[in-house]
Amino acid sequence: MTIFTAAIEQASDILWNSLLLFLLVGTGVFFTIRLRGVQLRRFGEGFHRVFGNFTLRGKKADDQGMSSFQALATAIAAQVGTGNITGCATALVSGGPGALFWVWVSAFFGMATIYAEAVLAQRYRTTVNGKVTGGPAYYIRAAFKGTFGKVLAGVFSVLIILALGFMGNMVQSNSIGDAFHNAFGMSHLAVGIVVAVIAAFIFLGGVQRIAAVTEKIVPIMAAFYIVGCVVILVMNYKTLPNAFTQIFVLAFNPQAMAGGVAGVTVQQAMRFGVARGLFSNEAGMGSAPNAAATASVSHPVKQGLVQSLSVYIDTLLICTCSAMMVMVFWVQDPETAMALNGMPLVQMAVNNAVGEVGIHFITFAIFAFAFSSLIGNYFYAETNFRYIFKNTKWGMLIFRVLCLAAIFYGCVNSFDLAWNLADIFMGFMAIINLVAILLLGKWALAALDDYTRQRKEGKDPVFIAASVPGMPACECWTTADLPNFGDNPVEEYIEEAASLDSEGLR
C-alpha cells in the first residue's frame, strides 16, 4: 500500500508540475490573445452583471436552469475550499513570497480560459426530459465526434464523479471534522453525522435547493472572510509595504531580500505560484462549465463574462487575503514562518495578529469554505451522473446515498490517498477538457464577435445560432427558445432572427 501511495504521489507530481502546468497556462495565454484580452475589455460589464442587481433572493431555479448569479455562486462554492486558506500558504513556503505574484498571473490568464469554457458550455447545452443541462461532457462529444467522442465524454464524466463527488468531498469533510475537533473538542463522529444530515437535506432538494443555498451562503461567507482578513491587515498595516515589496522583488529574484527561502529559484516561485493559482480557481479543469451551462441568459457571452469573475473572486480576492495574512507574519517572524506549512502556518499567522479569537475565525472559515465545496462538488457529480445514467430514480437515490456516505467517512477518518487520487483524476479531466475547448475555441470567438456586434448596434444581445456565419446547428439556441432566455431581448433583433429562420437557416 505504501508503494502504491508513493507511486500515486509521484504520478500526481509529474502530471501537475510539468505537463498540466504548461498546458493550463498555454491555454490561458492562447485564449487571452485569441479573444483580445476579453477578461480586461469586458471586466466592468461582467462585474455589473454580477453585482448590478445583486440580491440574496434571486429567481427560483426551474427547468430552464439557474439564474446567472446562481450558476456563478455554485461554481464559486465548489472552487472555494480549504485550499483557499492553506493553498497559498503552501505556495509561499515552497516557492517563497514571490510565488504569490505568479498566483496572480495564473489567475489573469485563467479568466480567459474559464470564459471560453462557460461560452462553450452554453453553446452546447441541451434539454433532457424537459430540463436544461450541459457541461464539458456535451461539448467534448461535439469536439471529437463519433464513438470516440461519446467514449471520451463518458470517461470525463466518470472522472469528475470520482474526483469531486467522492474523493474531493472526503477531503473537504475531513477538514471540517478536524477543524471542529481541534477548536472545540467535538468528536469526529458527531461532526460527521451533522454534516451528512445537512448535506442530505440540500442534495435531496435537487438543483433548486442547491441554487437557493449557494446564492445565499457564498456571498455571505466570502464577505465575512474578506472583511475579517482586511481587519487583520489593517491592524498590521505597518508591515504591508515590506510584504508587497517582497512579493514583487522575490518573484524574479528569490534571494534578493532577507527572509527569502534558501535555495528557491525563480522557476520554483513560478511553478508553485502558477500551480496553486490554477488549482485554486479550477480554470480549465472542466468543473465550472457544469454550472455555467444551466444559467438562463439570452447570450452565451453573458455567462462567460459572469463566470470569469469566479476566478477574480476565488483567487485574486480570497486567496490573496489568505496569503497576505501569512505575509504579515512572514515579515514579522520569517524563521518561524518558514518552519511551518499549510493550516498550522495560517493559524499561527492569525493568532499572532489578533490572538485566540483568530482560531475561531479560521474554524468558521474552514467550515464555510469546505461545506460550500461539498455542495458545488456534488452538483457537478450529479450533473455528470445524469449524463451517463439519465434520470433513473433508483440510480439517483443510490448515488446520493454513496455521496453522503463518502462525506461521513471523510469526517470520521483521514484518507490521505483520497487527495492524491483526486489530483490525478482532475489532471486527466483537465487534459480532456483543454483539448476540447482548444478544438472548439473558434466558436467562443464567434459568439464574442456576435455579442460585440449587437452591443455596437445598441441591442441587448440575443444569441441565435443560425445568425452566426458558419455556426453549426444548436439543439437549444433557436428562435423557438427565445421566450425561455434572456433579459428582455430587443424586438427588432428577434424579428431579424425569425426572418433568418424562415429562410431555412435554422
What would your notes on this structure say?
This protein has 20 helices and 2 strands. With about 500 residues, the chain is an all-alpha fold. It folds into 2 domains: about 1-250 and about 275-455, Amino acid/polyamine transporter I (Up-down Bundle), CATH 1.20.1740; about 460-505, no CATH class. The protein has a two-stranded antiparallel ribbon. The longest helix is centred in the last third of the chain and has 41 residues, at about 415-455. The termini are far apart. Residues about 495-505 have low confidence and may be disordered.
Strand fraction equals under 5%
Secondary structure class reads mainly alpha
Q: Please, what is the average pLDDT?
A: 81
CATH class of the largest domain: Mainly Alpha
Q: Report the total helices.
A: 20
Helix content: over 70%
- The CATH topology assignment of the largest domain is Amino acid/polyamine transporter I
